[in-house]
Amino acid sequence: MEAQLSRPLMALRLIFLLCFFSALARCCRFLAAEAAPTLVTRLPGLDGALPFRLETGYVIVDEEKGSELFYYFIESEGDPRRDPVVLWLTGGDRCSVLRALLFEIGPLKIIGEPYNGTIPRLRYHPYSWTKVASILFVDSPVGAGFSFSRNPTGYHVGEVSSSLQLKKFLTKWSTEHPYYIANHFYIGGDSAGGKIVPFLAQKISEDIEARVRPLINLKGYLVGNPGTGESIDFESRVPFLHGMGIISDQLYETIMEHCHGEVYTNPKTALCAQASDRFDRLYDEIYRPHILFKKCVYASSGTNDGSIERKILKEEAGVLKHPPPRLPMDCHNYGTYLSYFWANNNITRDALGIKKGSKDEWVRCHEGDLPYSFDIKSTIKYHRNMTLKGYPALVYSGDHDSAVPFLGTQSWVRSLNFPIVDEWRAWHLDGQSAGFTITYTNNLTFATVKGGGHTAPEFQPERCLAMFRRWVCREPL
């Protein structure tokens, strides 16, 4: 009798176990699918299918805190099996790399037209660097763009820790994309991203020397209008603005005589303090990323007293918690204003595969509202180390940038004391000078981009594509 009762019971248990493991398998398949990259074939605002291959996804860089970096990978429009792969990092205060994709070196641009409540339109960009390379755009550090952390402490990072997270990102991404391992690999970035690039490059080179797998096929790096952490980045503004006719001879001479490089720190004398104040007032008259462009006064709901302006902005921004500054149409960066409405649209987020509940709102930059340590004090030693190891480096500057002027960049490049192998000369496009360049031993090239600003490709896309194409193809500029 007991045996007869046990058989049905065993059968029930077997059915239960089968159901349990079946449900578990379905759950695991769901989780795996959720973590898988998204192949994006269409994007809102662009007519038709994408004319290039776009993959987006997340890579966990801190398992304990649940920190994930979001990326956009755009395959080369040339020969993706042979063309190089470039990891691109943007600058700013925890700024989204989407800006680099849409306004600098990516194959799409936002059309600058009055916002009418619908998704901003996109167009194809013919001077994208994806013409000659596959580009891996990464929202870094954690918190930038669509990157996020499940544990709030995951946002407590700095330049060093976020660089190490990027190294972990590359290891994981390369393991999941083994068909790109043989491609030449470069690291690039501009502005504050230029501080991360040489440090990250050195860490990867150390892994290569230690034979840590997967072996990244690192072939060099490039930085545009890069910060170094050194005072020269800012002190060079004084001779630059003097040379451009923005500050007078008298003010320049006073600063040089009485400030001794202290104009941006703590002036130690009354004369230096007065000169610094005058300098700041004059400097505030221009658009710092490009001195020839119109300076736009931002009007936001939080800073403008006009009730009509606030009403318009509220209607346009809708449910955005951090509405963007409302800019006049003739501002160079009006597209930045439009990008908020494009990136925060639910259709866009679905198309990009943004995880539900990961980020309630995309913002271009987090201006000091998340903790971040500036713990790479100077990058110059990393530039020296990498170039002495033989890795080619391209350091370029838009020559109309007053934020990190080319004079300061040219100065620290010279301070490396490498012998010159190709004297200062013009480089050309279509028979005209496109900038000026000098090449040193150890494959170090410095170049200016004529008419370029702080993010040179944003202002001179055709010239910058020509510069990048020649350099990455190992041709002289």
Characterise the protein shown here.
By secondary structure, the chain is an alpha/beta fold. Among the domains are: 2-36; 54-231 and 375-472, Alpha/Beta hydrolase fold, catalytic domain (Rossmann fold, 3-Layer(aba) Sandwich), CATH 3.40.50.1820. Helices cover 36% and strands 18% of the residues. It is built from 15 helices and 16 strands. The chain has helices at residues 2-35, 98-103, 159-176, 193-209, 232-235, 237-243, 249-258, 270-283, 307-317, 334-343, 346-352, 380-388, 406-415, 456-459, 461-472; strands at 38-40, 54-62, 67-74, 85-89, 108-110, 122-124, 134-138, 148-149, 157-158, 185-190, 218-224, 372-373, 393-398, 420-429, 432-440, 444-449. The strands form 3 sheets. Strands 1, 2, 3, 4, 7, 8, 10, 11, 13, 14, 15 and 16 form a 12-stranded mixed sheet that branches. Strands 5-6 form a two-stranded antiparallel ribbon. Strands 9-12 form a two-stranded parallel ribbon. A hairpin with a 4-residue loop joins strand 2 and strand 3 (67-74). Helix 4 runs parallel beside helix 12 and helix 7 (249-258) packs across helix 8. The longest helix is centred in the N-terminal third of the chain and has 34 residues, at 2-35. The N and C termini lie far apart (92 Å). The model is unreliable at 1-34 and 299-317 (pLDDT under 50).
